[in-house]
Input
Amino acid sequence: MKSHFKFSKEQRNGIFLLLLLIIALQSVYFYVVSSKGASEELQINENELLKFTNEIDSLRQIEIENSKPKIYPFNPNYITDYKGSTLGMSNEEIDRLLNYRKQNKWINSAKQFQEVTQVSDSLLEFISPYFKFPDWVENPKPKTHFSQNNKPKTYGEKQDLNTVTAQQLQKVNGVGKVISERIVKFRNKHVGGFLDDVQLNDVYGLTPEVVERIKERFTVKTPSPVKKLNLNTAVVSELVTVPHIDYDLAAEIVEQRQLREGFESFEDLNKVNGFPSNKIEIIKLYLHLEKQIDE
Output
């Protein structure tokens, strides 16, 4: 065995040189392969990272858009506390609008909305594209010029509001196809039609100005018969059949009637908590007053 491991000096130098050559070649190989692998891996990671980042940004943008509250066209005259807060209005701005509407006034433009509520320009720019006003506001009819010799129509010259057609109503400035059909639909909902001209104020979309123009041409000539309730004897179940009186208000009216030992006049209703004073003329159409109290 010893003879197998005995080498001459030249043999030992050759073996040593061969080992150095093998080690050098292996080192070069691993260096080249490692450098190439690291370069390829780094490049692949950058591409994947960019693709992944773009996908995350896209999903995040979609989530932001989906989380935004959806806004549909609406009439700004009927903004509630909740609706106003979702639109970004402050409590003061909402209160200004509600106080304005309590005066039975109507907003007919975005500019007027800002004047009443005092909202900022940026908020108005955001919400005003969704404003939806009645047809007669957005598509007003050209005004008809009357000569000074035209006199107001007398009762006999006016047409009966209970027989007029939607087409005839459209002759009034401010009454379009939608409004005229709405008036006829409202009339037909009541057996016998209108009781009085004042009921026009209950038609959605009609402003006091347009109501006055309608009354210049039309009036109720054939009022529907109605059995009026005695305000001083009617019970809750009877009062709730009157327009604008719900169960809570009917119960409040009966309670106040008992405390007062009967109502002296219809004006006493204005002192009842929650009574809609602006609707009293319509409510009076269904009531009469006799000084008789409940036993």
